[in-house]
Each structure stands twice: as C-alpha cells, then as structure tokens.
C-alpha cells in the first residue's frame, strides 16, 4: 500500500523533510535568543540611563575596557577641553541619517588624566581631505555629563580602520589610539556628551539609544517553529494524496486478460 515510499523520489523527499525540521527549529531558537538579548539590552540601557550620574573616574581608568554592564552609564567629568588635539570621526550619521562626522575632543581632568568626549555630530567638509569647521568647545573648566561607551574596534563595529587619513581625522573612537597621539593617560572608553547643550544646538548631541523597541525576532521565531511543525503535516498530506491518486489510477486501469488454457 505504501511501497511507493521506497521509491527514489519519496526517499529524497522524506530525507529533505527530516533535515528541514531540526534546521527550522534551530533557526527559531536563534531568533528567540536574539529576542532575549534585545530585551536584556533594553533593560540594561534603561537602568543605566536612570541611574544617578557618577564621576567617570569611578567607572574607568587608563587602559580599562568598559564592560557591557557599564554601557550607557551616566557619568560626569570636570576639566578643560583640549581643542588643540580635537579630531573628527569620519562617516557617521546624524539622527536623521545625514552623513557627516563626530567631534571628538579630549577633556583634561583635574587629576591629570584625560577622557575623550564625543561632543556630537556636524556636517563633513565639502572636501573630504579638509578639516571641517567645528563649533568651539566651552573655554575654561566645565563639567560634562554623558553616557559612558566602550572603545570602538573594527571587530565590534565593523568599521574598517583606514590608514593614511588627513590630519586630525579618524575612523574609530579608541582611547588607546588617542593615548599614543596625546602622550598622556587617557581613560578607557569615551563619554557621549548629553550636557551642557551646546550653543545653537551644534554639534548635534547624540540621542539616547532606543530601548523601547524589541524588534521582530520573537515573531520570526514563532514563524520558524510553525514552519517546522508544518513540514510533517505537509509530508502526511502528500503521502495520503499520493496513495489516493495511485488507488484511483489502479481502479481505472483495465484488468489484464487471463492467459489462454493450453
């Protein structure tokens, strides 16, 4: 009755179904884990943004790698901006997706160390080889509040660290690189400025990260699991249809004549 399942066509179809089921289940769990990661990250961002600001020197130090638990932590830093060593970070987008640069200015702290401050976004110069016109940083001692971020690397960001760039232009915000340039201790990571608000709203301060959206990952996970459940159901439907079609074909075919007696 079901001998047709041993045919080459049905053996291949059955093996394909057996392969698809675990693959789809695994893809569902992959999307589910991405959903869990997004939910956990949103909770971390919200908690760190709501936390009381701390002096940046309590969370990082020269050579320190900022852990994920401290990402977006609100921090303060008091010192004097070193505009002579200010650089711009190329190929960055604004909140409305315009291409430009970030203004990265060292802030010399009272204790002698330095922290890098991302003062915000500005348009790039018309000539990419030229240094853009950067709004001046506040003079004298200033207290900056911002979000603590980890050093950018090519591996983590996917941004290629190009060499041979024009003077005072970089691709990544990296404290180790700036330590070599400045010749003095630079705190690990950097500060993404949120206050004081610059005059004329330029540079444009970086908006706080999205921590409300959870994305479509859970919906994708459910879809993959439904697909996995649908494979055996579809296989059974096809088997029953094949059996019915073969039975109908056998019933319609004329009976073979019996051989004549000798």
Automatic annotation (TrEMBL):
The source's superkingdom equals: Bacteria
Q: Which UniProt keywords apply?
A: Cell membrane, Membrane, Transmembrane, Transmembrane helix
Please give the start and end residues of each transmembrane region.
12-32, 218-238
A single Pfam family it belongs to is SURF1
**InterPro entries named in the record:** Surf1/Shy1, Surf1/Surf4
Subcellular location(s): the record lists: Cell membrane; Membrane
Q: What is its main location?
A: membrane
Membrane topology per the entry is: Multi-pass membrane protein
UniProt lists the family membership as follows: Belongs to the SURF1 family.
**Name this polypeptide is given:** SURF1-like protein
What organism does the UniProt record list as the source? Answer: Streptomyces pyxinae
Q: What is the lineage of its organism?
A: Bacteria, Bacillati, Actinomycetota, Actinomycetes, Kitasatosporales
């Amino acid at each position: 009755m079901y001998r047709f399942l041993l045919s080459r066509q049905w053996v291949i179809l059955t093996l394909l179904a057996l392969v698809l089921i675990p693959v789809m289940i695994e893809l569902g769990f992959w999307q589910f884990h991405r959903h869990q990661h997004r939910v956990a990250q949103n909770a971390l961002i919200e908690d760190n943004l709501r936390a009381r600001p701390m002096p940046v020197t309590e969370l990082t130090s020269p050579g320190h790698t900022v852990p994920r638990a401290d990402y977006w932590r609100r921090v303060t830093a008091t010192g004097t901006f070193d505009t002579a060593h200010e650089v711009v970070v190329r190929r960055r987008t604004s909140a409305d997706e315009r291409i430009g640069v970030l203004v990265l200015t060292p802030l010399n702290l009272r204790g002698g160390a330095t922290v890098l401050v991302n003062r915000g976004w500005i348009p790039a110069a018309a000539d990419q080889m030229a240094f853009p016109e950067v709004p001046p940083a506040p003079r004298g001692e200033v207290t900056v509040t911002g979000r603590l971020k980890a050093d950018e690397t090519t591996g983590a960001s996917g941004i290629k660290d190009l060499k041979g760039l024009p003077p005072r232009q970089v691709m990544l915000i990296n404290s180790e690189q700036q330590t070599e340039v400045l010749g003095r201790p630079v705190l690990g990571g950097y500060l993404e400025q949120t206050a004081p608000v610059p005059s004329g709203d330029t540079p444009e301060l970086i908006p706080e990260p999205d921590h409300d959206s959870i994305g479509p990952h859970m919906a994708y996970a459910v879809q993959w699991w439904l697909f996995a459940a649908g494979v055996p159901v579809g296989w059974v439907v096809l088997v029953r249809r094949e059996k019915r079609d073969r039975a109908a074909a056998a019933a319609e075919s004329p009976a073979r004549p019996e051989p004549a007696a000798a």
